[in-house]
Amino acid sequence: MSATERALSIEDLYHEDLIQTDASVNPGNSGGALVNIHGQLIGINTFIKSTSGGSQGIGFAVPANKARKVVRQILEYGSVVPPRLGIKEIQSVTEDLAEKLSIPHNTGVLVSEVEKQGPAADADIKRGDVITGISGHRIKSEDDFKAITRLLSLHQPIACELIRRGKKRQTEFTLKTLEWYYAPSGWGLTLSQPDKAMARKYRQPGVIVSNVERNSGLRDVLTRGDFIYQIDNIKIHSLEFLKIVIDELIRTQNGMRLYFERDGVDETIVVTFNRNNRWR
Question: What was the pLDDT predicted at 50?
Fold first, then answer.
């Protein structure tokens, strides 16, 4: 083993927190065990970097502790469940930014935007906070933050250290599961979060109409595969955010304008709903 916590981009996919090894790894070995001299599992072989295509080069493996967490989630939920923290935007602390904030360079990540309803907001994490540590792990960059939060335990209190206006603070948050489907009661349709392939296709955030029931009041205007990216003047960047927007608009008005894409063409419709929140 020659290095740990390696990050590489292979075939347009970003891999992080990898073990680098010069042990013999050949094509077809992916998914095999990487063991130490005591026969203990330390990683799962993933890919090689070689000019010959054989073992004359270096190999990379997913750490065993990371694989263990993935297996645990698959057994519990049926798939790997992305965590939802409720922080919409962060950025690494550059030298210029560190000077303005009067903190050391490479210290934490700056929180640029927080969802109104989410684990971060519940933990009183605010815009302008600098998160320096999570669950005992030091945060130096945006990559650190994403790698650490991605495999934290769900539905359990997680310790968080941050700096706010130059003062150190501590808080706790509880990660929730990121919901992939949303079927509003009485609306007769199901919305879903786009996967990575869909996100690349549309090149902007939004949600997919994955099903429209026969008796839906929207059946004549929406169809499966429509990509909704805006409601009124609000850009929709996630399924969770869509739910918040719709709840607020239902509470304050009796209709809204939907902006969506169908077969590469942008379209817009005005929809209204009654007191039971049913579209009409």
Answer: 66
